[in-house]
Design a protein that fits this description.
It is built from 10 helices and 9 strands. The protein is elongated, with a radius of gyration of 22 Å. The strands form 3 sheets. A 5-stranded parallel β-sheet has the order 2-1-6-5-7, with helices on both faces. Helix content is 37%, strand content 17%.
């Protein structure tokens, strides 16, 4: 069971996400729970201020440390918070491997930053991990937090029915998924590849392995080189053998 506490200025943004995403399924299965904390609830002045001008001048406003620390400390009174994650474009890129690591945890805090910035003391003395969802800048960490939570929720043990489906997907073993087709077998003038409707299971496996390799090679060759994960070489050997038909 993973408990994810989200600290945000915009809890309303999460409402439809939490009611119709994979996270909802994870919550129903009691494999994960997401608890929202409104940063403004941890302010003490009459304007409920959460940000202020940067020392030294410059444009934009910076989130003050006080409300963020208070929000986090109200959660971490329960002892086993394992990670305090800041969503920021300065963080390490989110990958399937990283999502899988977080999916193993019991309790995490996710702080939604604002792109103008967060007081550096939050980074230095509270945050344990900084996560970016890509090399582009969004106005705040809310959408990135949703992406992060969705990626994690699918990997929390017990959420996806058949272990196979997360194992086989794009980016497991750094390979892209083969093309998928469904009924009708002929749509307009376009037929699905013959082998898929042939009943030849071995042929289907081989075709899929070939397509998966080809796609990865053509679209994301970077995934094929430099990956030195345990099991990757063996997985490649199996897929190549299958794709080239030498077994
Ligand atoms: N906040 C703003 N942009 C972001 C990004 N690309 N990733 C994570 N958090 C962000």
């Amino acid at each position: 069971m993973l408990e994810a506490h989200v600290i945000t200025l915009f809890p309303d943004m999460f409402e439809s996400f939490l009611s119709c995403s994979f996270v909802e399924r994870a919550q129903k299965k009691q494999a994960m729970s997401v608890i929202l904390h409104n940063l403004r609830d941890f302010t003490h002045d009459k304007h409920n201020s959460v940000d202020d001008e940067p020392f030294g001048g410059g444009p934009g406003m910076v989130l003050m440390p006080g409300p963020i620390f208070e929000a986090a400390e109200s959660i971490s009174e329960s002892p086993d918070v394992e990670s305090v994650v800041l969503m920021t474009p300065q963080g390490a890129l989110l990958t399937q491997d990283r999502a899988a690591e977080f999916a193993q945890k019991k309790r995490i805090i996710v702080i939604c930053g604002r792109y103008e910035g967060v007081d550096e003391r939050v980074r230095e003395y509270l945050v344990t991990d900084e996560v970016s969802i890509g090399d582009y800048v969004l106005a705040g960490g809310e959408l990135p937090a949703m992406v992060f939570l969705e990626a994690i929720s699918r990997l929390v043990p017990g959420v996806v029915g058949c272990e196979e489906s997360t194992f086989d997907e794009s980016h497991s073993f750094a390979m892209l998924e083969y093309p998928q087709y469904t009924r009708p077998a002929k749509f307009r003038s376009w037929k699905v590849p013959k082998v898929l409707v042939s009943g030849d299971h071995e042929g289907v496996r081989r075709w899929r392995a070939r397509q998966s390799l080809l796609r990865t090679f053509l679209r994301r060759p970077d995934l094929l080189c430099g990956v030195q994960k345990d099991g990757f070489r063996e997985e490649m050997r199996i897929r190549l053998t299958l794709a080239l038909g030498d077994n």
